[in-house]
Amino acid sequence: MVENPVRPRAAKILGIFPQAEKEWTFRVENSAPVRHGQFMQLSIPRVGEAPISISGFGDGYVDFTIRKVGKVTDELFALKKGDIIFLRGCYGNGWPVEKMKGKNIVVVAGGTGVSPVKSLINMFYKDPDYAKEIYLILGFKNSKSILFADELKQWKAAEHFHTFYTLDNEDCPGWNKGLVTGFIGKIPFDSFDGNYECIVVGPPVMMKFSGAELLKNNVPEEKIWMSFERKMSCAIGKCGHCRIDETYVCLDGPIFNYTIGKKLVD
Amino acid sequence: MNQAKTYLLTPEACDQLFARLEERFDLYAPVRVPAGGRYAQTDSILYRQIHKYSEIEFRERSTYPMKEVLTPITQTLFYFTEDEYRESKGPKKDMLVFGRACDLNSIKIQDQMYLKNGDVEDYFYKRVRDRVKFVLMECTTQFDGCFCCSVGANQTDLHSLAASFREDGVYFEVRDKEFEEYFRGAEPSDYEIRFPQENEMKVKYPVIDSLDLANKIKGHPMWKEFDERCIGCGSCTVACSTCTCFETTDLVYTQNAHVGERRRTCSSCMVDGFDRVAGGASFRKTTAEKYRYKILHKVYGYDARFHQGPMCVGCGRCSARCPQLISYPETLNKLSKAIEEIKQEEGARNG
Lengths: 266, 351
Description:
By secondary structure, chain A is of the alpha/beta class. Chain A is 20% helix and 33% strand.
């Protein structure tokens, strides 16, 4: 029998960890190899299928941090530990981790946009020798929508991490106030001697303005990497929903260098 | 020189041939569905399984394209229970499908998408495609809005047999040796089946040679009129021989909500929701943007990725089906003009 690339496989929910009011992390059984920044197609029979970023992974599991905003995600929130969901993948190219070896890393991420880059940040955290200094500009709408609070604390305390945590429109102790773009100017790009890479993930508008702000700070386009979110029905280049001109986000992305990403006009 | 042998069959002999072919193949061809049309007292011509010569409607173009035999508008992919997704069954027999040169050429585009893009074969397409052979239907007349010659889709080599249907019989040309046995004893003929050489409608298919140019065209005012004219109904993409996009949806059986089907349904970039992500954001909000996206896929995106020319076989069905009478060839002409304008502007700026 020929392998069917779109047949989902059953996977048990190993744990559910609420992060915020509307965002929970689902830990699900998985034995497929994962790269940082990839996604999977997650199915609930009778509800449907949706592409979801992998927010973490380890021996025998993947984590999905999901916001309760869609048909599939709503149904997910009714499930319990031990229930079965269906997966296929992983899909997508993932972050260019090799390119990041030994460099300073700047991450600008907003809201659920932290998910696709979280496992990568954790790798930098656990292996301080992999990259150099890590600069995190992480933004959330308000204190109720803060994700990964425990990890945020750990990263803040790490010696090789420099963190700028901000809430868009709320005063909150220990947090800055304002959009992530306002903190890009605080990154000492000049001191990097060209040895750095930047990561930008978040809603389209946030990515657009963060990209512009990085360029304003004389960051070369080639050093900026972005993760795109598009609708997908298949994730294998057939259904057409994620296509932008000759580019298929599922096959060629979801991570794009800015030199390519800036030309992707839907 | 025409090496293939050609035979003339009476309608009765054709029925006998079909009966023998049906031992191995299910036969699919356009048939007339009386009163099945969009307006009162109009017919539809749709692809159906056929058994006899008299069922085939060869005098007109089919309303919907041949692709629906291979990729139906809706098909069941999987049956699911609580703990398993199981594939639906594929075709039980080989299939012999009748189509015109444009229809057959559209299959190359379907193949490109379903079998080659991403270096992954679509299981559900592949299991059908492997069992299909084609019969070319000669175009003895042309239909309103045909422009296959303008996109090089007037010739094909994908067929096993070619047929020229007449009121009193059928000329069959045998290209694939495995079909020769079916014609033993039939009356040979020196009739030569031809491809269309020239269409009444001629389209200068626009060429967009770079993504930068494509992006400039996106900002051109030519698209604005389609906000007024196009209603975003998706009729053109359903009627398109080459459109391949689909949606995946689950449905449950009413007596047991844990058991059901996962279906693939043809979808359209002209319709709201095509690009909507979880949370409700979408990227092309206006009808003009949707129409521009569709046209630029046909003209630019497909060729830029696969280097196979336009994603269009000139069958004319999109214009024929448009309830707003929007002409695709006319859009192409406007696009050619827009490209000229942009290039001239650039030339002036650089000069």
